[in-house]
Amino acid sequence: GAGVSQSPSNKVTEKGKDVELRCDPISGHTALYWYRQSLGQGLEFLIYFQGNSAPDKSGLPSDRFSAERTGGSVSTLTIQRTQQEDSAVYLCASSLRAGSQETQYFGPGTRLLVL
Amino acid sequence: RKEVEQDPGPFNVPEGATVAFNCTYSNSASQSFFWYRQDCRKEPKLLMSVYSSGNEDGRFTAQLNRASQYISLLIRDSKLSDSATYLCVVNSAGNNRKLIWGLGTSLAVNP
Q: Which value, to the nearest 10 degrees, does the dihedral of the CA atoms of residues B66, B13, A91, B35 take?
């Protein structure tokens, strides 16, 4: 039983470059969430998917951030023209269904450093 | 006022001690409450959901006080392996699918 996987585990990039982060949820989980955690900070909700649709994008910090999910499985979070303040751990979680009673299972995260 | 507030700690306790954390939330319409645990440089993992009547799982007891809008976590007979950050999580009222995360309370259990 594989858990949530994310790639890459670490990413160092230069300011202004685009990055793409990948999340592979637990098989059969229809809901997928992206969070960001900066050093010493709490989890910041970015976006969630129910199937392939994203009913709530309210947490995306700017229009440089976008996410998609295809086939109800893998999701990618893209950050365009990265800035230093984008440096953080990007965590993906999945749950069987969308709903606040559902347990969210997290991946190990992608540590992004923008120089 | 933050939507979910926790004392950041750190709480330093000896092995075997009992320790309690509180968490307050701002929206009285919130319906779902959880405690997650996060080890250093690791992802959060669900510790336990918090039910209206309170619930217990081994050495861990969670309580909900709706009138005062706080939840608590009690750890009895603490172990070295309990050292972690404990995250209070509450659903965003009006958006049943969105969870609001506290900044966490840091616990260090010392030998």
A: -20
Cβ contacts of B46 on chain A, cutoff 8 Å = 103-105
| Residue A104 DSSP symbol | P
Tokens of A96: 């069987």
> Which pairs count as long-range contacts for A60-69, CB under 8 Å and 24+ apart, including other chains?
A61/A36, A67/A34, A69/A32
**With a cut of 50, which residues of chain B have pLDDT below it?**
none
Q: Which of residues 44-63 of A touch B (CB under 8 A)?
A: 44-45, 48, 50, 55-56, 58
At B80-106, the pLDDT tens digits run 999 999 999 998 766 556 788 999 999
Chain B hits for A45, CB-CB cut-off 8 Å, are: 98-101
Distance CA A88, CA A41 (A): 10
Average model confidence (pLDDT) for chain A?
92
